[in-house]
Amino acid sequence: MTWHLTSDVETFAATAGTFLSSSPVRHTVLLTVVAALRFKGPHAYGESDPILGWWTTPSGEVSGALVRTPPYPLTLTGTPPEAVPAAAEALATTPLTAVNLPAEAVPAFIEAWTSLVGGTARLGRRTRLFRLERLTPPAEFPPGTARLATAADRPLLLDWFQAFHDYIGEQPPDLTALVDDRIESRGVTLWERDGTPVSMAARSRPEAGMTRIQFVYTPPPHRRHGYGAAATTEATRYALDAGATEVVLFTDLANPASNALYPRLGYRPTEDRAVVEFSP
């Protein structure tokens, strides 16, 4: 039983791809990250080489995976319990500032990492993964209509994507490229009222039949009118119409409004995750 690490995305995809595709809901992040690395190159997320890894059983079966694309935290899938401290050991010589992992794995990783490397650990953002069971639109939509964003919306999207990332405390290495990619893939749904956009919800490109709803954002002056629910509903509908068999999204557990909203739209909790931040 051991971790195998590489920076070669094709080697990783060939070895761990079947494992990731076997559970596209729980592996949503790794599936989309690997797809981006394969399409845009190994430095799609920054100048540093990615670290990709898979955990194998004595029989050679892959039963866990990890990806690190600096400056983003290391992301770890669900794994057998013994693989969690083993991941810390395998990465002990790698500068690591944060890890995103299933909530139940947090204590074991913290204990292993701080024992090996020292320093302190702090629990950061906690999230919940939701899976669409059956889309349940609001009983009454707010005034307005949905449409897909176009290049003409680029200045607005740059502002809104930046505001979204400011809220969650993460900054993409290239915001412009992120927005342009979503526009090109027709992946941003806008809800507009009287011709003015008031909310947005984006969606990822499909991977293994799975699409993730992302970047749900409503500017403060337009909140508490149901626009976010309307935009999310229509983004979900676009994903389903495009052939997605699984639609997922993450919420911030510190945001009670979103955690109450998505179950009303037909989403059900699947997994809780947490970011752990490390300092010397």
UniProtKB/TrEMBL annotation:
| Chain ranges of the N-acetyltransferase domain | 144-280
* Gene Ontology MF terms in the entry: acyltransferase activity, transferring groups other than amino-acyl groups
State the name under which the record lists this protein: N-acetyltransferase
PANTHER family per record:
AMINOALKYLPHOSPHONATE N-ACETYLTRANSFERASE-RELATED-RELATED (PTHR43877)
Transferase is among the record's keywords? yes
SUPFAM superfamilies in alphabetical order:
Acyl-CoA N-acyltransferases (Nat)
- What keywords would UniProt list here? Acyltransferase, Transferase
Its lineage opens with: Bacteria, Bacillati, Actinomycetota, Actinomycetes, Micromonosporales
Q: Which organism is it from?
A: Actinoplanes lobatus
PROSITE patterns attached to this UniProt entry: GNAT
Tell whether Transferase is among the UniProt keywords. yes
For this protein, the record's Pfam families field holds:
Acetyltransf_1
Coiled-coil residues are: none
